[in-house]
Amino acid sequence: MSFPDCIEWLGAKVKGYGVRSKGGRRPKGKQVYVHREVWEEKNGPIPDGLWILHKCDHPPCINIDHLFIGTPKDNTQDMIAKGRSKLNPNKFKTHCKRGHEFTIVNTYSRPGGRECRECWKTRREEYVSGKL
User: Fold this and answer.
1) Which CATH code, of 3.40.250.10, 3.40.50.300, 3.90.75.20, 3.40.50.720, is assigned to 1-86?
2) Average pLDDT over residues 50-62
3) Across all residues in the chain, what is the average pLDDT?
4) Cα(20)–Cα(35) distance, rounded to whole angstroms?
5) Region 99-108: what's the mean pLDDT?
6) 129 FRET partner, CA 20 to 30 A, in 13, 54, 101, 122?
7) Is 72 left (phi over 0), alpha (psi -120 to 50) or beta?
8) How far does CA 9 lie from the centroid of its chain?
9) Can you give the pTM of this predicted structure?
10) Is residue 7 classed exposed, middle or buried when 0-12, 13-18 and 19+ CB atoms within 10 A define those classes?
11) pLDDT attached to residue 89
């Protein structure tokens, strides 16, 4: 899905992202991603470890308004939030469905998943008291 105002790179692409040769023809020239160049032209150098992400989820788009900077984790969370992940979305949750934080102390890890200790304790108390 792309935004109606995407500006699509019509040149060469690698894995859907627009690329071009910088510093002469290949093999001497270096291949660069065009969306990263567009970002740097407006905002300056991209700090090490950060990526340029697409709000529009359209890899060949070079519209500066569709680009934002983030970490690889931001990229994964954006992908999951938009429903594009084939990964288990529960893996990235920071809190259980009742709002308790998944911490080392408050989380049972077991094969096939994890469970909030607070919720487990509450369910156990309800079972023992006959409420379940």
Assistant:
1) 3.90.75.20
2) 94
3) 88
4) 10
5) 92
6) 101
7) alpha
8) 22
9) 0.61
10) middle
11) 67
